[in-house]
């Protein structure tokens, strides 16, 4: 991917480059990670892409503003869910101007269940804007889509990030909404890691104590055997 400057800016409205102070450490980390989100998810388990919609539609208001296109201009929409070991972790919504989806970005129409990352990160002519993030309320269109993938009641707000990829002057905007299952998985993994670290430390201390005190214990035992009073009675 090229490092050249992109003329499109994904920021605006509630979208900002610096994650909000109220986000957790995990949220700040995942909302600002560069590179392929699919690749990052693969460090957690087996990733599968489930396509939920591909169609001609209109951009959402903030998307149209960010891309500098007319509010009712047609765009090609691709919506997918990224699952890790069968559990939905991310709901993604990507758009490109309709003409570009037949031209520069026509490959996005042929991806099927392959991740968009295969298209975006294998082409040196593609440049990417800065990542921006936002807290989506339940009324946000992407939050509505994400809620369908959440087991149980949806939270009042969801974390999302977005950026614009540019190829030969044509934009493709990718918005990724992280689902509660991702944060729960990361929290559980951190707890397991903490327990493993504590267990390893305990075993190491116990082993060290045995190795250090073993010969002394043996000498003490013989000394008690020779001189200690008998308490059997």
From TrEMBL:
Gene Ontology annotations of biological process type: pyruvate biosynthetic process; ubiquinone biosynthetic process
UniProt-recorded Gene Ontology molecular function terms: chorismate lyase activity
Subcellular location: Cytoplasm
Region annotation (Disordered) ranges: 193-213
Catalytic activity: chorismate = 4-hydroxybenzoate + pyruvate
EC class of the enzyme, as a word: lyase
GO CC aspect terms: cytosol
Pathway listed: Cofactor biosynthesis; ubiquinone biosynthesis
EC number of this enzyme: 4.1.3.40
Domain of life, source organism: Bacteria
Chain residues that bind substrate: 78, 116, 176
Annotated InterPro entries: Chorismate--pyruvate_lyase, Chorismate_lyase_/UTRA_dom_sf
Alphabetical keyword list: Cytoplasm, Lyase, Pyruvate, Ubiquinone biosynthesis
PANTHER family: CHORISMATE PYRUVATE-LYASE
HAMAP family: UbiC (MF_01632)
Function: Removes the pyruvyl group from chorismate, with concomitant aromatization of the ring, to provide 4-hydroxybenzoate (4HB) for the ubiquinone pathway.
Entry's family note: Belongs to the UbiC family.
Name the record gives this protein: Probable chorismate pyruvate-lyase
């Amino acid at each position: 991917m090229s490092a050249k400057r992109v003329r499109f800016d994904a920021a605006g409205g509630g979208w900002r480059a610096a994650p909000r102070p109220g986000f957790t450490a995990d949220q700040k980390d995942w909302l600002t990670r560069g590179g392929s989100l699919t690749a990052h998810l693969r460090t957690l388990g087996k990733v599968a892409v489930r396509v939920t919609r591909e169609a001609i539609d209109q951009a959402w208001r903030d998307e149209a503003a960010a891309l500098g296109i007319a509010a009712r201009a047609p765009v090609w929409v691709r919506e997918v869910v990224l699952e890790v070991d069968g559990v939905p972790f991310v709901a993604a919504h990507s758009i490109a101007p309709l003409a570009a989806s037949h031209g520069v970005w026509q490959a996005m129409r042929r991806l099927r269940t392959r991740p968009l990352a295969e298209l975006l990160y294998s082409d040196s002519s593609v440049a990417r804007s800065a990542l921006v993030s936002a807290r989506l309320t339940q009324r946000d269109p992407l939050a509505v889509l994400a809620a369908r993938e959440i087991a149980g009641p949806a939270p009042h707000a969801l974390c999302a990030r977005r950026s614009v990829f540019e190829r030969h002057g044509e934009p493709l905007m990718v918005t990724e909404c992280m689902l509660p299952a991702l944060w729960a998985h990361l929290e559980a993994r951190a707890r397991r890691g903490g327990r493993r670290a504590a267990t390893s430390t305990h075993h190491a201390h116990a082993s060290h104590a045995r190795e250090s005190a073993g010969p002394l214990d043996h000498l003490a035992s013989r000394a008690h055997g020779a001189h200690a009073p008998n308490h059997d009675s």
